[in-house]
Amino acid sequence: MNERKPVRGLTALRLKTIGAVLMALSVASTTLLPALLGAPTADNMGALTAMVLCEVASWAAIPIYAWLLVEGHRRTRRPAAYLGRLAALAVVCEVPYDLATSGTAFDMRSQNPVWGLVIALIVLMLLDWADRRYGGGSGSGAAKWAMSALFVVAGLLWDLLLGVGVRQRVMFAGAAILLFALIFRWLRARENTMMFAAGLLGAVLCIAPAIGVMLLHYRNDELGYEPDSRVQWALYAVYPVLLCLGAAVALVA
User: Residues 76-86: what's their mean pLDDT?
Assistant: First the structure.
């Protein structure tokens, strides 16, 4: 009996595991580190430095999750159900996210970054609709690109006006997720061009996301687990569990 050779490269499972570790750094930067090291102030540079380093490192997850979103959208046969799962996850995460980041149960200054995935997926679905609606015929190309531009601008405004994934008033994760998702959607057939464009965008966005792009270059486009398995649902639970733990630490501290 032939043994199955181990898959080389980063499967979707491995990418999601890396993303989970990076998300844990983000949660820890605003909850665990202040509890252990004290308030990050000018008089406590050690705590401030540790918090900033963890937060910035976590931004490497942005292109990873944008890629996983695009691939999930490409693979799924039920995009509406996929959107529903992400929207439910965003709703579940919102209160613990606000508690972990601001200490209050309702804070409109920043929404959890899962909403950025939701908005990006809506834009991708609308772009698919534009492709189907204006995919052929004389003059359809201009109409398709006009509608596509409208959907992209609307998505970016949605992210920015609602403060989706705003971190340290420097990183706008929701808008960044959408921009990476568009690069991965439109340039997927040209690997080198796609990686260069995504890496350039990551470098502009405080360098850290470019590291996430570098990790994506070593992907192998395998899932690494069975679809609709318990692993998939466990992966959905990782972020809300991390947020709840962070919120508990913040409230106790």
Answer: 95
Q: Give the closest residue to 218 by CA, choosing from 65, 72, 64.
A: 64
**CA dist., res. 147 & res. 142, Å (int):** 9
- Name the residue type at position 253: A
Q: Are 51 and 62 in contact (CB under 8 A)?
A: no
Q: Is 151 in contact with 131 (CB distance < 8 Å)? A: no
User: What pLDDT, in 10s, does the model give residues 1-26?
Assistant: 444 455 578 999 999 999 999 999 99
Residue 150: CB atoms within 10 A of its CB come to 12
Residue-wise burial string across 108-136, b where 16 or more C-beta atoms lie within 10 A, e elsewhere: eebbbbbbbbbbbbbbbbbbeebeeebee
pTM: 0.93
